[in-house]
Amino acid sequence: MRVIGLQVLVAAIGLAVVGALLFAQSSGLEVSYSPASGGEYVEAVVGQPTFVNPLLRSLAPADRDLAALTQAGLMRLDASGLPVPNLAASWAVTADGLSYTFVLREGLRWSDGFPLTLDDVLFSLRLLQAPDFPGAPDLVAMWGKVIVAKLNATTLKLTLPEAYAPFLEQMVFYVQPAHVFAPAVASELGRHPANARLVGAGPFMLKELVSNSDGTLQEAVLTPNANHFGVAPMLESVRLRFMPQAESAEAALRGGAAMGWGGAAPAAVAALLSDSQLQVYSAPVPKFGVIYLNQRNAAVDFFAEKKVRQALLLAFNRQGFVDAALQGQGIVARGPVAEGTWAQKSDLVSVAYDPKRATELLATANWQLPVDALAGTEGYAREKQGKRLVFTLAAPDDAMGRILGQLVAESWKKLGVQATVQLMPPAELYENMLPGRQFEAVLAMLNLETSADPDPYLFWHQTEIETGLNYSGYENRAISELL
């Protein structure tokens, strides 16, 4: 099952602004507004920053926000998700799609005043290419095949072994300052002491970290980076206030301690919408709920049967889950391509909930209930040739994993399929179980926010079965050729 969540951003309405608007309307005058420099924006962020190196692209909200404001890459993604030059002044690619050249802007400087040169880019690329780089395995594998060449003081050439359409998107990686991190090796990046300095080339720079009495961080204060190459920020400062939990962030917003908060859970949306002092904005984000069925595990070889997989999909009411558990803040996926992207076929129809059809499929595949089976009992599991439709469904031990895992298991139980939910620490599930393929079935929440390209190649191509992201072992040559 796949669900795309909706990112929810909540912002408080300043009473002074509302008053000014009301006065303008009552006076009968035409008033125009234009942005003015100055002012401060305060945002509540759930969680503490861990200060992993920005090259590792942490998805933790605090680290992600700090990096986005203070760091820069050769390329960046514009509002429509397309890569455009950033630290690079220009780029070019050969007709065969194998060689890319990037020309660095002149006069670049880091936020601490040191010159930013092509040597910093090369230093960052060496870290990305290191076998012990502590990032995603697929990222390490991709960069390990790229040939890096310095053509002159400002020109970089990258050569690929084969054409890779999303490659340009990979150039948004945050370039790191060699004068700060050298001679560090890749394996040290995760907790390098210099990470907390956040020296970068982004529009803002870190001014101050404020701690609570217990040593935890209360907030990070950012000010405009005077050495930034682009348009200077209008704001005088940005404060990111770190909250222990979502309830604290909501309280800070309602109490005036924060002006905005991103990432409100769907369950909180109804209450937020009813507050006249708040404005709620929502937009689709590529977060998928996926159930992987391991087709290469001999203990559950029935997952290789197409009718079994189809029946499991038909038996779970995905739209019902979105409406009830997500307060409507989700989209039932119609296929493997992210909704709302240019690659999604507009006339696709999602597979509807149909438990009757699911039952028929299993029956025609000769998966039968025992004669003396009692609905809801352990023996209520379909059998075929001595094999029972019984397996373990691993799920992350978090709010979404607990709710979704249980609902899925209950739906399948009515079908005559026994799935025992095994809750696991998220880090263990994502870092060990999935990459090691040591599961029967697993519910995973995939966050693809760092990727603007909707290409599903890495998840379903047969070449990705052994070491890539094709965790279920799905092998279909026709599909692979299309991908």
Topology:
Blueprint: E1 3-12, H1 15-27, E2 40-46, H2 61-70, E3 75-77, E4 83-85, E5 88-93, E6 99-104, H3 118-129, H4 137-144, E7 147-150, E8 155-159, H5 167-170, H6 178-181, E9 204-211, E10 217-224, E11 237-243, H7 246-255, E12 260-262, H8 266-273, E13 278-284, E14 287-293, H9 306-314, H10 318-325, E15 330-332, H11 355-364, E16 383-384, E17 387-388, E18 390-396, H12 399-415, E19 418-424, H13 426-436, E20 441-447, H14 457-460, H15 477-482
Parallel strand pairs: 2-11, 2-12, 18-19, 18-20
Antiparallel strand pairs: 1-12, 1-13, 1-15, 3-4, 5-6, 6-8, 7-8, 9-10, 10-11, 14-20, 16-17
Helix pairs in contact: 9-11
Protein architecture, described:
- The chain is an alpha+beta fold.
- Among the domains are: 75-187, Dipeptide-binding Protein, Domain 1 (Dipeptide-binding Protein, domain 1); 287-482, Dipeptide-binding Protein, domain 3, CATH 3.10.105.
- It has 15 helices and 20 strands.
- The strands form 5 sheets. Strands 1, 2, 9, 10, 11, 12, 13 and 15 form an 8-stranded mixed beta sheet that branches. The protein has a 4-stranded antiparallel beta sheet with strand order 5-6-8-7, with helices on one face. Strands 14-20-18-19 form a 4-stranded mixed beta sheet, with helices on both faces.
- The longest helix has 17 residues, at 399-415.
- The model is unreliable at 1-8 and 12-27 (pLDDT under 50).
Brief characterization of the structure:
This protein is of the alpha+beta class and 483 residues long.
